[in-house]
Design goal:
This protein is of the alpha+beta class and 308 residues long. The protein has 2 domains: 110 residues, 3-Layer(aba) Sandwich (Rossmann fold); 169 residues, Tumour Suppressor Smad4 (Sandwich), CATH 2.60.200.40. It contains 9 helices and 14 strands. The strands form 2 sheets. Strands 5, 6, 7, 8, 9, 10, 11, 12, 13 and 14 form a 10-stranded antiparallel sheet that branches. A 4-stranded parallel sheet has the order 2-1-3-4. About 9% of the residues have low confidence. This is Diacylglycerol kinase family enzyme.
Length: 308
């Protein structure tokens, strides 16, 4: 069977040499000329993905950073068209969580192989608006402030280090009242960060929610509410060691539907990109909604959860 492919590529992330490598790899695999769709600043991938769907291709290869990868995943969820990833960004969050090679040749080899899995996506509505989707994480608070404050020029030169510089600037943020409802169970905290996670891994080999898997039919809510320096230290130790610390003022709940309600409008991010501002974020897991070229999972550790 001839594999009909579309490539949704961010030309500012995927250079000419790597683009040529993708074209050569597809030709060597016997694929016909792909439908090559480049993103733009005005449209980082949404209409291009829809064009690929309308064309009836068998496989859509997303080549770019986290923003492009998210929009392609959102557009393919529920279509039964397979997705593959050529990671070309700084964070490459979904690729890391699925253990997809971060080099073009390795990622393309996986894309054109026969290993595949179905993963969940999360449907998100902000203030009752139109639904969107993400595959890794959505967050408000310090999380969104860090993403919003990242200097794109620094990302190009120092990579993930740009996030740490942005984090240092954002640490002065005060906790804000937040109400989190997970599967009908309500929690109130004064939080510095509130994240809905479909996966758990960040850049730098750090895991925010160790053991969270993108195909377990659940979403996870991570809330950090430190009020003194010792809480910050314990929360950081938890992040590095992947183990809860006594009195670290971090809680993690699991469920299928979550509502985050803020007292005032605040920025929120989806898979590493700030998308806007809102007061009420509602997320619901859509199990197995995305076919993706990735190796089967092999991890068996379970997330450390608080009682819901």
């Amino acid at each position: 069977m001839t594999l009909r492919c579309a490539v949704v590529a961010n030309p500012t992330k995927l250079g000419d040499a790597d683009a040529a490598l993708v074209r050569e790899g597809l030709a060597a695999a016997g694929c016909p000329e792909p439908l090559w769709l480049e993103t733009s600043a005005d449209d980082p991938g949404r209409s291009m993905t829809q064009q690929a769907v309308d064309a009836g291709v068998d496989l859509v290869i997303a080549a770019g950073g986290d923003g492009t990868i998210r929009l392609v995943a959102a557009g393919l969820a529920g279509t039964d068209i397979a997705m593959a990833i050529i990671p070309a960004g700084t964070g490459n969050l979904l690729a890391r969580n699925l253990e997809i090679p971060l080099d073009v040749a390795g990622a393309l080899s996986l894309a054109l192989g026969d290993e595949e899995r179905r993963i969940d996506t999360v449907v998100l509505r902000v203030d009752g608006g139109e639904p969107d989707r993400f595959a890794v994480m959505a967050g408000t608070g310090l999380d969104a402030m860090i993403m919003e404050g990242v200097d794109e020029r620094l990302k190009k030169f120092i990579g993930p280090g740009a996030y740490f510089l942005s984090a240092a600037k954002a640490l002065g943020r005060l906790p804000v009242p937040v109400q989190v409802t997970v599967d009908g169970k309500r929690h109130r905290r004064k939080a510095i960060i509130t994240v809905i996670g479909n996966c758990g891994e960040l850049t730098g080999d750090l895991e925010l929610i160790p053991g969270a898997q993108p195909d377990d039919g659940q979403l996870y809510v991570y809330v950090a509410f430190p009020s003194r320096p010792t809480h910050w230290i314990k929360a950081f130790i938890r992040l590095v060691t992947r183990r809860p610390q006594k009195d670290d003022h971090v809680e993690v709940w699991a469920g299928r539907k979550v509502e985050i309600r803020l007292q005032a409008e605040d920025a929120y991010e989806l898979d590493g990109d700030v998308e806007g501002e809102g007061t009420v974020l509602t997320g619901e897991v859509d199990p197995g909604s995305l076919r993706i070229r990735a190796r089967p999972p092999h991890r068996v550790d379970q997330p450390a959860l608080n009682a819901s």
